[in-house]
Amino acid sequence: MELTIDESILKAYGLTRETINIQQIGSGLINGTYLLTNIANGKKFVLQYLNKVVFTNPEAIANNIDAVAQFLKQNHPDYLFPAPVASVTGHSMYLQAGKHWRLMPFVDGTVALDTLSTPKQAFEAAKQFGKLSRLLNRFDSSKLEPTIAGFHDLALRFTQFKDALNAASNENKEKAAKEIETALALEHLLSQYLQFKSKADFPDRVMHHDTKISNALLDQESFEGVCVIDLDTLMPGKFISDLGDMMRTYLCEFSENETDLSKITIRIAYFSAMIDGYLSEMGSILTDTEKELILFSGKYMIYMQALRFLTDFLNGSIYYPTTYAEQNLDRAKNQFKLLEELFANEEQLQHLIDVSLKKK
Ligand code: GN1
Ligand code: MG
């Protein structure tokens, strides 16, 4: 990631290098993110460029965020939605040397955690993502454009995996033999997804599509939820994307980069808190079919992420940045272990869901 920021970008937002401090922040794999601090008054902003290989239609991102921001401003004026601020020429993006930059407000007094250390944090973050879905329940999601085509389409991810398998070197196929076998053996999750996808009460909603804990800002002292950030994948989708990615990233104490698989276990209390937090906002909105799919959401997202890591490994790691050669294979192993744990605890988890639904 580059550390020098062209002066013209700062100027586009009325800033100068002499008056601000620049610090690289964030743990995302895709975009480049910086914290800008005004030396004189301490005011902070987040400056970010879009990864143009991943986000090929930056205008769609800007239009989606604008449309949602307008709706929220009209209908829920007190809601904190950290949309990009306008440049001095009134645009929500600035194009420099082929890169699209945005400047976002930094929300004071908040933290973006990389890992969850209490169930309360799981409750609060899940509540924030649920709240966004609830507030946008009446927003017509077909007004938004997909910012990444087929992003959470499990059928497409499975096809991409099969294509990668066909093209992979024998060496990579041997290294990943066990994971390939697991991926194929779990194809029934794809059948289940396809079966539900076309059901009438499985609506498209505005989904965040990246609900990891560092995308929920929490109050730095009380750890109460404040708002969500990273709005680039705000687009039509199914509710299983958001809730499922929370299961994928909140339940285990260790991240997708952990290579000691014995550490990949599920924290039941976090699951319970997460479901309670999410349903405190969405419990009265979800349809019967959606309620039926609460646990499935975790299976769907974890399986899809395992497929994506495995696919990237087979392709020679061209999508997810890595720090060592087999990291994407290790990430796939990690995700398959997490999925196994979800299956192993299925009965108890479903019971907790049923209890939480009854509270509503
Ligand atoms: C990417 O960059 P980051 O961490 O926000 C990816 C997500 C994956 C995640 C896995 C646009 O998100 O879908 O779940 O990595 N985003 C994109 O760490 O592909
Ligand atoms: Mg992201």
What is this structure, in a nutshell?
Helices cover 46% and strands 12% of the residues. By secondary structure, it is of the alpha+beta class. Bound molecules: 2-acetamido-2-deoxy-1-O-phosphono-alpha-D-glucopyranose (GN1) and magnesium ion.
Chemical compounds bound to the protein:
2-acetamido-2-deoxy-1-O-phosphono-alpha-D-glucopyranose, magnesium ion
Percentage beta strand: 5-15%
Enumerate how many helices there are, as a single number: 13
CATH superfamily of the largest domain: Aminoglycoside phosphotransferase (APH), C-terminal lobe
- H-E order: HEEEHEEEHHHHHEEEEHHHHHH
Major sheet: 5 strands, antiparallel
Strand order, largest beta sheet: 1-2-3-5-4
Specify Rg, calculated over alpha carbons.
20 Å
User: Are there runs of 5+ residues with pLDDT below 50, and where?
Assistant: none
CATH architecture field of the largest domain: Alpha-Beta Complex
What would your notes on this structure say?
InterPro entries: Aminoglycoside_PTrfase, Kinase-like_dom_sf, Prot_kinase_dom, Pseudomonas-type_ThrB. This is Phosphotransferase enzyme family protein. The structure is a single chain. This protein has 13 helices and 10 strands. It is α+β, with helices and mostly antiparallel strands and 360 residues long. The protein has 2 domains: 7-56 and 83-106, Phosphorylase Kinase, domain 1 (2-Layer Sandwich), CATH 3.30.200.20; 119-359, Aminoglycoside 3'-phosphotransferase, Chain: A, domain 2 (Alpha-Beta Complex). It has a 5-stranded antiparallel sheet with strand order 1-2-3-5-4. A 3-stranded antiparallel sheet has the order 6-8-9, covered by helices on one side. α3 runs parallel beside α9, α4 (154-167) runs parallel beside α11 (294-314) and α8 crosses α11. The radius of gyration is 20 Å and the shape is globular. The termini are far apart. The mean pLDDT is 95. The structure holds 2-acetamido-2-deoxy-1-O-phosphono-alpha-D-glucopyranose and magnesium ion (MG). Residues 28-30, 54, 148, 210, 256, 305 line the site of 2-acetamido-2-deoxy-1-O-phosphono-alpha-D-glucopyranose.
